[in-house]
Design a protein that fits this description.
By secondary structure, the protein is an all-alpha fold. It is 71% helix and 0% strand. The chain is globular, with a radius of gyration of 22 Å. The relative contact order is 0.20.
Length: 468
Amino acid sequence: MNITKTPPKISFLLLVLLITGSIDSIRNLPSAALFGSQLPFFFILGALTFLLPTAFVSAELSSRCPENSGIYGWTRTAFGKKWAFLAIWLQWVNTMVWYPTILSFIAATTAHVFAPELAKNKSYMIAMILMIFWLMTFVNLKGLKTSARFASICTLMGTLLPMSMILILALVWIIKGNPSQVNFSHWMPNLHHQDGWISLTAIMASFLGMELATVHTRYVHQPRKTVPKALLATVVIIVFTMLLGSLAIAMVLPNQEIALVDGIMQAFSSFLDHYHLAWAMPIMGVLIVVGSLGSMINWMLSPATGLLQAAQDGFVPRFLAKTNTAKAPANLLLLQAVVVSLVCSAFLFMPSISGSYWLLTALSTELYMLMYVMMFCAAVKIRHQQKGQTPEFTIPGKTFGFTVVSILGFIGCTITLLVGFIPPDSINTGSHYAVIFSTGLVTMIIPVVLFYIYYHRAGKLSIATASY
């Protein structure tokens, strides 16, 4: 007798935690905190021109295409397989560049718990990055059900709890009249200076990933209703926690002392030392590490699952399309672990760890923004294809509302793509930043051409074999 396993179902709460854990990472707070009193302006601008548009568009696409979920399914529905492969490649390869940034954050935070001086040691950082990533790869090999539960627990314990703690500590700081490093009389940035627009890159980088969990739509109970509600609920949580959390760091640390990799631990140390609670530092460090591990889970599995769809369509060798008994894309997960191990060498070539962190963050953001441009284009095309159909969720305002949201999304993506080539003056990225950045961008996109060639040759070989 054949027994078919019932696919795991993801509830509304679990989906919200999965999406929130992917985006609402406490590691993003220091890079945003660099911009002090100008934070509210850039958060509002980033939310209006990127976070809300991506949430609304992802929600409508999930409702219109529940059977073809995720960026690969949406782009394939709109433009066909070739464009879909480019879109999912941009999402996947962007994570290859992004992983070392969150891994470096985890390694630095772990060092603060046991030996703070190691946070500046490149050998330690690389060794920890490789160990943590391979460990998380084996967790993901257990399948979606295991990884989703792991991620939700980590989000509650290691993201929302520390976020709440730093907000409470900041509130007490203000109530007791302690000095603040933020002067809110200078809230409007100088938009004629490039540093003002560079600020937007850090904010946009902290908003990436809204569409990630939609690749698991088929496992969601009543996806046409649940996914849009979860996406919009997540927007509220993200804006609230990240804006106030970043301001909390900016308030207690002088701008020039904020380190991108271990800035959050600096902030907690300042707060807890002031309140004679230094004994709680190791506890906060462990919680933050747990939250960051949970954040990685969806980023590791979702793009690989999307690329699995492309592998099944013949764009990459067949052995990469294989799944294990837990239905996880095992070979793809192992391949990306190898690639990330190689990308980590960036830490050896940059003059500082913060410089490496900024370069990889900016490069990751640039690749992801190209994917979002394709997502907005796919949304326009699918709306036209399904003219007359009324899905359970549509962007408010009918055609006018959809047009406004799409234009805002295109504007946000364009600005971020342009300023990504300019590093901030306060971070040592070396004298050849633009060359390294451009080379990295081209290197990450070129493999698409090779996979297209493979796809055509494999297709011709299949036709010839069938004819024979």
